[in-house]
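for the writeup, i need someone to sanity check this before i put it in the appendix. the sequnce is what the collaborator sent (i think, or maybe the updated version? ugh). structure was predicted straight from it, no edits. if anything looks off just tell me and ill rerun, i have time this weekend
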Amino acid sequence: MQQTVNGTATNYTLDLATGLTQVLADTAKVYVYGNGRIAQQGLTTEYFLTDALGSVQQLTDAAGNVTLAQSYEPFGETLSSAGSGSTVWQFAGEARDASGLTFLRSRYLNTATGRFFNRDPWAGPSVSQ
């Protein structure tokens, strides 16, 4: 799959066999999974430390040194970010792309307002009476 944001294309390798589609690799990184996303590998390997919601709170290097520390507002806007590490995986373990929006597999969330840009394409189960 390829996604273009602000003229920059990113290629993704996806695992479609999981309950929710997982990104195995993008143009810059390869991702390691166990029960969840464990690490990202590029020039170096960095490990994800997440909260109960799955939000990436910290990245560490192989020696356990924190390379990135982040915190979030209730709807996912980044409250603070410190360190030299970087990752697209942010609030609730979802990707925030170059547009600054969080991609939730079928639509974008603006974390500054806590609103989606479009209606959910799934109308829900049909109810017969």
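The chain has one domain: 9-115. The chain has a mean pLDDT of 89.
thx in advance!!
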